[in-house]
Amino acid sequence: MPRFLAVYTMQPEDLARFRALPRSEQDAIDAAGLPLWVDWEARNAPFLPDRGGMVGKTRRVTKAGVGDAVNPFCGYIVVEADDIDAAARLFENHPHFTVFPGDGVDIMPFLTDPKPV
């Protein structure tokens, strides 16, 4: 079955607004959203060969060297689906952007197969 990389995105200013909320409001959002996220993963487990994870600050390596970078990526997950549209439909109404301050999930097909370990 084809595999797709799904990247959770969040604008830095949206994360900053969330982090600026009183701790009790952040906790209330987490309390509402985390069970929904766990439920989403449980419902879609057959399509999730690699549950990935959330990611932090970025370092970028270029010909010029190593430095800080900013991007909207805050996590990833690998999904299996018949096609990119089916993969995208898995994320409709996802708590990442319906409860948490995420702004979307970008879905991309893998063009190469993973190498066996």
Summarize the entry for a quick read.
The protein has one domain: Alpha-Beta Plaits, CATH 3.30.70.1060.
Overview of the molecule:
The protein is α+β, with helices and mostly antiparallel strands. 34% of the residues lie in helices and 31% in strands. It contains 4 helices and 6 strands. Strands 2-5-1-6 form a 4-stranded antiparallel beta sheet. A hairpin with a 2-residue loop joins strand 3 and strand 4.
Let me know the average pLDDT. 95
Find the CATH topology: Alpha-Beta Plaits
Beta-strand percentage?
25-35%
Per CATH, which architecture?
2-Layer Sandwich
For this structure, the quaternary state is single chain
The SSE order reads: EHHEEEEHHE
Rounded radius of gyration (Å): 16 Å
Terminal CA distance reads 19 Å
Q: Which descriptor suits the 3D outline?
A: flat
Query: Which spans of ≥5 residues are poorly predicted at pLDDT below 50?
Result: none
Structural class: alpha+beta
